[in-house]
From TrEMBL:
Keyword Chaperone: no
Residues spanning the membrane: 34-54, 66-87, 99-125
Main location (coarse class): membrane
Source organism per UniProt: Antrostomus carolinensis
Cellular localisation: Membrane
UniProt topology in membrane: Multi-pass membrane protein
Protein name: Chloride channel protein D
InterPro entries: Cl-channel/antiporter (IPR051280), Cl-channel_core (IPR014743), ClC (IPR001807)
Length: 129
């Protein structure tokens, strides 16, 4: 954060550690916190580095980058839905929350890459919603 209580969106996603970045993305009610440019830049960066790391012979953790990549694309999809339908405050439109969509995107990407069972994916989604 800068001294005037603002922050750089791209720096918050690319410079912070993975856990803090994931928590930024999972925060509910923050549909104006990150823009398309910073989200797409971070998605391309993390996806390319994750593919490179997974293909190398080096033992490294891919759990956080998989969650991060899924949270990024979930939040991008949710921002598209918010721009189409607007911010919904009723109980039927509350699912269009970028933080919740980031959690669903992280669970879907993680379960798709690691062949996670459906029950564990539901536990993961229910933890963040």
């Amino acid at each position: 954060r800068y001294s005037n209580q603002t922050f750089s969106q791209a720096a918050a996603l690319l410079v912070e550690n993975g856990k803090q970045g994931i928590m930024y993305l999972f925060k509910r009610g923050t549909h104006e916190e990150f823009g398309y440019t910073s989200l797409c830049t971070a998605l391309a960066f993390y996806f390319i580095l994750s593919c490179w790391t997974a293909g190398s012979a080096v033992a490294s953790g891919l759990v956080a980058p998989m969650l991060y990549t899924g949270a990024l694309y979930g939040r991008i999809i949710s921002l598209i839905l918010v721009s189409i339908f607007g911010v919904q405050t009723n109980e039927y439109g509350a699912w269009i929350d970028p933080g919740l969509s980031a959690a669903i995107g992280a669970a879907s990407f993680f379960s798709g890459v690691s062949r996670l069972t459906i029950s564990l994916a539901m536990i993961m989604v229910s933890r963040f919603s």
